[in-house]
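== Sequence entry ==
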Amino acid sequence: MIGHHIRGPRTGMGWAWPSSIQAPQVNTDRDVGAASVGMGFIAAYQTTGRRAYLQAAEHAADWLISVAEKAHGGLHWPNSVSSRDVDQTSYTSFDDGAMGIADFLYRIYAIDHRRAYLRAAEDGLRWEEAVARGADRRSCPAACSWQWDQYPGDGTYTGMGMGISGIAYTFDLFAQRTGNTRYQRYAEGAARYVESLISRRYDAVPEQPGQPGWDTGYLSGSAGDAFMFLSLYHHTRNQRWLRDAVRLLGFVEKTGHVAKGGESWPIEFDPSGRQNNNAIALGTEEGNAGIGWVMLNAYEVTGRTGYLAVAVRAGNYLVSHLPRMRRGRACAEDIGSGNTALFHTSLDNSASGCGFFLHDLSVVTGTGTYQAAARNLAEWLNATSRTDKHGILWYDYLNTRTRQWRSPREMSWHWGQAGIIAFLSRLSGWAVSMPVEQQSIVPLPVRSGGNGPARTSSVQPGRLDIGRLSTASLVSPPVACFKVPIPRMVLVRADSPLARVCFMRYGSPDVIMTVAWWMLSPSGHWCWYLPWVSLKG
């Protein structure tokens, strides 16, 4: 990826990457643009400790700041930039616009502490606040909605990728990171609007308000909307948001088809038939991997074993539909109908995303079958990789009908190299679970290599630098744990940011590992059977 960068278009500052799939565009966004490639470099840096990868991510951030446009006292980003032209479309969504770019900039700031990145991230949220609209006859932030972009008539979307759920999630995430209560008001205002759209008949949210059809998956469907409500509940402990999540997860469960220990879902459910899509997607964007991963998060947040059972069935279905191919196993985009002949290498649609979920399922359940399948998918990626003068690369997909590979050298998180790197980093011990474009609500265990048992943390000196003690990339430990009155000693969760920083800075000789199984914390809800580490001094 480093070898395929270009100097930042128009400004000459920083680095950017042309998209081979959306050629000749040089995008800014989180799924295809510079922010998405930068996330791949963050994964590589936090896995290997190689500073060149952090510097590459910083170059991406520098270009993004240089092309940001000022408006409403904040910043927004053009969709794409070239030496000749600027696409003036500015999106509000996480995947395509200001919110995803702001999150990337904050993640860089959390590592290197350069305040220019923090200021730009906060300016992005300031613009997002300014273009918000009231909803349900209430003004924002009491109830908030956004158009996908700023062109009249382009519409409003609800999901995590293109819509209001992703915006609500990001405001809540920044409220946790910064303590800014204004962000929390916008997060909850957006959540109230999505809540108002939940169908009383089906307990599902439409992809667009007033339109027929209810998607099941993560990107634009009820699984992704449920993830937003779960994240909001985990932060605020407001039972209202948990009830919303449970309703939406109930819809996902009702639309699933269970057979032979596996479970699958249609992409879209519409009893009228106008928008019905019975294709069974396997990837994280619309299908099994994304739905199964949300169910893993629901289990981790609520402790309800029924959600884990659904995740296991999603995993079983995936494993049973991975054909052997090129010394490994491959993952089709769709089963039954749709793009059944397309086998992607990417995170969102096929191998990398399917493997990422299966790996995470293995570390939660301890079942080696899922880890073996994840490694088989990685072996297929290894077998299908190519090389040029800059190093290793992949094509986006293989069409098994024509036997042709398409779209080489796509560098993005959504469809290309950055997402593949994220999956391989996770297999190698990266502590962040992020098979979509947001990370897990609760840090999941870590396993690197082999099929052995997962461990709470694989962090070693110099291997992971998360920087600030905040929720920049992980959920922080309960505050009460920092108030234990023991001189020169503090009890923290072993997978917390503080524990990771102490491992990174001081190494194991200065750390006394003690595992305790606490039945219940003083606050009554967050320490059930969690491993803890005692850090000397």
Notes: The first strand starts at residue 6 and ends at 7. The CA atoms of residues 493 and 532 lie 5 Å apart. Confidence is low (pLDDT under 50) at residues 455-490, 499-537.
